[in-house]
Amino acid sequence: MTINLNRRTLLKTLGKGSALIGTFAAAGCTSQALLGTNHSGEKGQTNAGWGEEAQAIRDRIQAPRFPARAISITEFGAKTGIENDNTQAIKQAIEHIAELGGGRVVVPAGEFYTGPVHLKSNIDFHIAKGATLHFYPEPERYKPYVFTRWEGTELMGYSPLIYAFEQTNIAITGEGTLEGGGRNDTWWPWKGKWKEAPWGDHPTDNQKFTRDVLREMAEQQVPVHKRVFDHNFLRPPFIQPYRCQNVLIENVTIKNSPFWLVNPVLCQNVTIRGITCNSHGPNSDGCDPECCTDVLIEDCTFDTGDDCIAIKSGRNADGRRVAQPCENILINNCTMKAGHGGIVIGSEISGGVRNLYSQNCVMSSPDLDRGIRIKTNSIRGGHLQNLNYRNISIGQVKDAVVINFYYEEGDVGNFTPVLEDIRIEKLHVVKAKRAFMLRGYPHTPITGVSMKDITIEKVEFDPVVENVGNIKQENIFINGHPFEVTSA
Prior knowledge:
By secondary structure, the protein is mostly beta strands. The chain has two domains: 1-279, Pectate Lyase C-like (3 Solenoid); 285-488, 3 Solenoid (Pectate Lyase C-like), CATH 2.160.20. Helices cover 10% and strands 39% of the residues.
């Protein structure tokens, strides 16, 4: 039975509110039809009670502003229908507005089709209400290769569907839909064996073959420009701004991604607001900031085949080479449905994470595996510090809280994870198979964690608790009784 929860009835929304722009007129828009494009959200008391640091992060994050000029892709020959490839029309519209100093490029109402879209500085790429921008699921369209990252390792790979490299002031906005074309006969079979998929493992035509070679290259410190594959089965992410500043992704619906949906990498000042992520393919993470600084994720809905939100900072040797933590992250008022995890740290976490503030989120689905999750091991390592969670309401989940040092490879490396100042407060769960899965190492127990005011109404199985040191606990109730976490 699915337990439906309404955030409005469960949580008091704090600091919500945005100065949202009006929807661009879908029909007949021209370069003379100018709109104000100030996306700066009003700053409320979203982080009240968490001290000056959280509020300072909130105050620093400012969504980009754009010149008040706009043009439709139809002015450059774009037409609806799958037979009309609009890649060049979109490219020309972006270049035209960029040459004028920036503004809005509009995809009007209708069904449009394209290959990769590359954004330039000062461009607001606007998907109007009633518009669906389909991306052709044909890998050759996403060449030539670009500088990208795949599961925390840099390479020259397929272009993300929407990509920006070292740009400033970029946005993807609107009430329309971005359709990635991922399904059981396109993109997704590259995963190889996965759940109940009608495909299986093959020697060379799945992502594992390419991935393993790439990871060995990274361990051997092969320069990124030489990490190129003639036969590449690493599916591209949907949206990936790379080394960009002042990024906004707002209100759009993102569906059926080849791989991760929203993946800003090494970006500064990122606002992700009001988006809906709906993709149930393999590795369909909703939002994965990697090595980013000052990130706001709020009022978003995630219904995905993998983690809803996963904070990342590079994998193994490559993550330590780049050596950039993901830091100063605010997650507010989000809804998580299906997914491997609701709010996740890892597993590509070698660069560390610090200063995470997550609150006022609702999660519930029989297909939600974990609520709050930290996953790493002694190959990936990572220094995780000042991670804060409060006012989280979960209806139905398999595991409510997971901290796992044995994810995938386990304890076979030399980079022991370090946890420091991890706080979970005011967590309410209606139904879980297990309350906790906490697995530390015998030589390095889990420490640095405090849990307070946690209620889990119905739990089916005993928790898994291995090698947990002194953690602070206060007011924890499971199945109507006081509970204390102790190692087995």
